[in-house]
Amino acid sequence: AVAAGAALAVAGTWALVQELSRDRALATVAALFMLVSPILLVQSGGLLNYLFTLGLGLGFLTLLRQGVRTGSPVRLVGSGLLLGWIFFTRPYDAAIWGLLGVVPLVVAHRHRLRDLVAPALWGLLGVAPLVAVTLALNQRLTGSALEFPITVADPLDQFGFGDRRLMPGFGIIDYG
């Protein structure tokens, strides 16, 4: 799983740089830098899904930009599916990736925002099922659609200010 996450991150780097620059050599250099980057080693040692999420996020950005550029509903739905998958595993990260995808497109198309309506609807078609599944799962496991299962392990493991803790047995930290 770690190797697959690392491969996804490297391939996602190549694909996004290729989409942004249209330069295969530059994309290859960027992917090689990702491959030899110490962050790849550090993140793969955590046995968490950071690299997998990075790969999904890079894929989301690539498919989103390709979908808007080419008008491809398949790529736009695919971008939504990838963002939904991120939401299922790391909701806060999904919000950040979503902003990274949408804000530059809105800025680039600010004089013709109507051009983004159809791509947005196709993207929503992809993301909506996974958001619905996530919210239903939250409801089933925690009793609230907006409370994520991680809080079952420790209610102090959440975002925001105040007393927080990663998990029982760890010290409480006051984020003020």
Outline the structure in words.
- The chain has 176 residues and is mainly alpha-helical.
- It is built from 8 helices and 2 strands, in the order H-H-H-H-H-H-H-H-E-E.
- The protein has a two-stranded antiparallel sheet with strand order 1-2.
- Strand 1 (162-164) and strand 2 (173-175) form a beta hairpin.
- The radius of gyration is 18 Å and the shape is globular.
- The mean pLDDT is 91.
Query: H/E series, N to C?
Result: HHHHHHHHEE
Query: Which secondary-structure class do the elements indicate?
Result: mainly alpha
**DSSP strand count:** 2
Q: Strand portion, in percent?
A: under 5%
Which sheet architecture does the biggest sheet show?
A: 2 strands, antiparallel
What oligomeric state do the depicted chains represent? Answer: single chain
Number of helix segments? Answer: 8
Give a quick summary of the entry:
With 176 residues, this protein is mainly α. It contains eight helices and two strands, in the order ααααααααββ.
Task: Draw up the topology in text.
Blueprint: H1 2-21, H2 24-36, H3 38-44, H4 50-70, H5 73-89, H6 91-108, H7 117-142, H8 150-153, E1 162-164, E2 173-175
Helix pairs in contact: 1-2, 1-4, 4-5, 4-6, 5-6, 5-7
Search tags:
176 residues; mainly alpha; two-stranded antiparallel sheet; 8 helices; 2 strands; 3% strand; globular
